[in-house]
Amino acid sequence: MEIVQDLHSQTATITTEEIIVNNSHRNTTITEQPQHQRFRDYRWWFRVSIYIIFLLIGQSAATLLGRLYYDKGGNSKWMATFVQSAGFPLLLPLFFNFTAHSKSNNIHTNDASSRKTRPKFSTLISLYIAFGLLLAGDNLMYSYGLLYLNLSTYSLLCATQLAFNALFSFFLNSQKFTALIFNSIVLLTMSTSLLAINSDSEEDSTNLPRDKRVLGFIFTLCASAAFSLYLSLVQLSFDKVIKKETFSAILNMQFYPSFVATCICVVGLFASGEWKSLDEEMKGYENGKVSYIMTLFWTAVTWQISSIGMIGLVLDVSSLFSNVIGTVVLPVVPILSVIFFHDKINGVKFIALVLAIWGFLSYIYQHYLDDKKAKANKTHLPEVSRGEVEIC
Questions:
Q1: Model's pTM, two decimal places?
Q2: Residue pLDDT, tens place only, 285-296
């Protein structure tokens, strides 16, 4: 009996020690998991910060250079459209590097599940061609808008992308439509309406007739809607078709549609006959041939930098957030246009600027609330799991 009792006590001790070890192991796992999560959060914030910098610097510089091209003697709409997508060869070093890295990873993880999630080649080709067509049309409308409007009016009209994108994200990306987002749309609509009224009596620095300015207004508004649709469709394709969250996927989404858009621009340049006047345009450029070439070159470079940041934000956050960050340039470009291009900002345009910034901040606050709620849910979940482990 004593032997049996000793055996029972030993097994009880062993099982108690095992439980303690298992529980301690689970506890260490639980305490270590937030550290890994924190590290992933830091990496995510760093990556998103890089994309935001790319988008802000690229978009503001590209817009100013596009206006400079027209102001100094450039007049080709197809050339201005061409440089918005023609910088894609600059991505080739990154493209081959990350594509090779992605292929090597696929070799190591080449199982049945990865094959099932991989989209068909024909589906990807159709997707890239469709995005290229949409991008070319959108860039052409932006080129007309930038030609027929002064830079401050053009930049404020581009803020309507946020309102359009909120609508497209609601229908295509299941984006929540809260009171703050609705407030943002209303404010941006009011800002656009003020600009429409102001354009009738404004003395424009482009010295173009009223019908041209109205045409530029319509083109910019349509381009903003098309660009918002493009961003929402890119997010939808990442979620439903591509199903990868890698930098190589971002490069693919930037490289192939830009190639298609550039080919369309080349066809348009020759079909319209504008290519015949490019030599005279270069000779008549105010700052000389070198300045003409460098303006177009850096416009192409800055648009590619902006596009990488934009698509990166679509992939890591959402299309609506990407558009919101794009509108951060809103108060910057009109101020720079006054400094460099001597645009006039009257009282109506200043009110439109304030309303647009108010609309932007309204959405930013909504995003802050969503992020705070998501963090609260994340911190609540480990506490529940820890309680379950301790009970077991």
A1: 0.74
A2: 998 999 999 999
